[in-house]
Amino acid sequence: MRQEEFEDRYVNHWKKFEVQINLAEALKLNKKKGEHSLKGFADNYRQLCYCLALARERHYSPLLIHRLEALVFRGHQSFYQKRLGIFQNIFHFILHGFPQAVRQQANFIWASSALFYLPLIVVFLLMLVFPDMIYMIVDPGTVTSMENMYDPAAERFGTERSSDSDFYMFGHYIRNNIGIAFQIFAGGILLTIGSQFYLLFNGFVFGAIAGHIYNIGYSETFFSFVIGHGAFELTGIVVAGGAGLQLGWAILSPGVYSRKQALVNAAKSSIQLVYGSIFLLLIAAFVEAFWSSTHMVSANTKYWVGGIFWILVIGYLTLLGRRKRLGLTKGSAHGS
Amino acid sequence: MLDTTREIEVPEGVELSLAVAGLVSRSLAFMIDLIVRWVGLGTVSGILEYLGNFGQGLFLILVFVVEWFYPVLFEVFNQGQTIGKKSMGIMVINDDGTPTDWSSSIVRNLLRFADFLPMLFGFGVLSMLINKDFKRLGDLAAGTLVVHRRKIKEEKLSYEEEGLAPKISLTLEEQSAIISFAERSSKMSVSRTHELASYLGPWLEQDKTKKNPENEALLLKRMAKWLRGHQ
């Protein structure tokens, strides 16, 4: 068949299909309207692919082939798009998916915890022996501002912060803390080095500051402030670190896959941990802005509530999402 | 690195060749996006200033969202194109040619931070130059690809003359070259058309030609018409 005959025979088909693609692309955002006019989309798409294959085989002109290719590409994109159901699954993810993901990647989470908490504890203990070490780790300006912030004698501790400045701090914590978590995660792709660096660095600084505050006797204002949101914030940071380690580890030790494929797989799995870390850090920002800074409750109450927060977080990550798996195995047992 | 097309086989058994976007067009797209973001945030901050601390807090949340998720939202909802990418005619797709989804888009955009290290997208540029598909680290992990979006113009062969059968039989490649010449001739300057056609002068030696390039081009077009099947 000559090219012109071929075009004449199928051109109406292609035009019709193009209209359908335009419709499908427009419908992507607001679904359910006029779905009936997409009837036969799959058949038309398959026929178009057939035409492209024929046109190639018969060496029709490149222009025609490009035209068909462009159409097939658009059809392919419309036909094989994934459902964008992230927000429908959000509750399921929080109740089941995230704790399961954390337990599945327990090794990385433990490694990340070690990288963060070990230097924190070591530096804190060292600080008790060598108080001046703070100036080797944190610059003097920051030390002074920390001292002012947690000075029990400071005037502002007597007065309550207004709620709109609480909200300002909320925005600040979201931007700052979740940004840090993303950096810790992203650094992991550099053969885990980035994640390790940020985890160790944050552990060092936090340990040093905590030690210094303890040394100068401001413990109560500091620890009662930190303990509440710390449960969510430190865990969120550690989880993001675990995700980064998983990413880099896939390149270092790809197992049966090619390094490239192992990386893609690890990214798919570790992004779940990142979502979870965002969830924890959002709570942390909220608690830090609206609870940790309040002076209406005593330090003792804050310690108690903070302790409960820690138990909640640990319980959440270790216990939740197990029942579903049990239910599934039960179901399959029934089936067999 | 010279050959920038990449073949993707779709499940229907045909191959698509896509033109992978290189460093320059992607950098330019990024810069356009950067300007769009700055202008957008600048405008909004002006408005939120009237809301005091609450507005400032809201602004910081907005900055966070725009910093990390501006490309994600566009790539997911706007067929793989941010404003910058759209103006450069490039788009993000998954390795298998399907549109980007949430997780692949979020991975590639969070990892932009690693691409930025150690400074000014050092690792990202390095990775793009080493990789044959110009992938930065984020693309490698997310399994995504940035390609040019082809614009197709329909060319009509609009000349009156009748088709003309070539005297000797032509191979498929030769036929396709002649048709392609005819289809593209409307995009080329007249003199270029004639220059190209004149190479085939000796070969075209059919009775009507008298070493006249205008005639040669016309002959080729008529031949193309015949080859395409016009009677």
SSE topology:
The complex is a heterodimer of chains A (336) and B (231).
Chain A: H1 3-27, H2 41-57, H3 62-79, H4 90-104, H5 106-129, H6 134-137, H7 140-149, H8 163-187, H9 193-215, H10 219-252, H11 259-292, H12 299-319, H13 322-335
Chain B: E1 5-9, E2 15-19, H1 23-48, H2 52-77, H3 83-88, E3 90-94, H4 102-110, H5 112-116, H6 122-130, H7 137-142, E4 144-148, H8 172-184, H9 190-199, H10 213-228
Summarize the structure.
Chain A is built from 13 helices and no strands.
Secondary-structure-based class of chain A equals mainly alpha
Q: Quickly count the helices of chain B.
A: 10
The chain-level mean pLDDT of chain A equals 84
Number of domains of chain A: 2
Strand content of chain B: 5-15%
Element-level helix/strand string of chain A: HHHHHHHHHHHHH
Specify the structural class of chain B. Answer: mainly alpha
Along the chain, the helix and strand elements of chain B come as EEHHHEHHHHEHHH
Give the CA-based shape of chain B: elongated
Strand order of the largest sheet of chain B: 1-2
Helix content of chain A: over 70%
Work out the count of structural domains of chain B. Answer: 2
Mean pLDDT of chain B: 83
What pair of chains forms the biggest interface? A-B, 66 and 62 residues
**How far apart are the termini of chain B?**
44 Å
Count every beta strand of chain B, where a strand is a DSSP E run of 2 or more residues: 4
Main beta sheet of chain B, described?
2 strands, antiparallel
Largest sheet, strands/sense/barrel of chain A:
none
Give unreliable regions of chain B as ranges. Answer: none
- Rg on CA atoms of chain B, Å: 26 Å
**What is the first-to-last residue Cα distance of chain A?**
57 Å
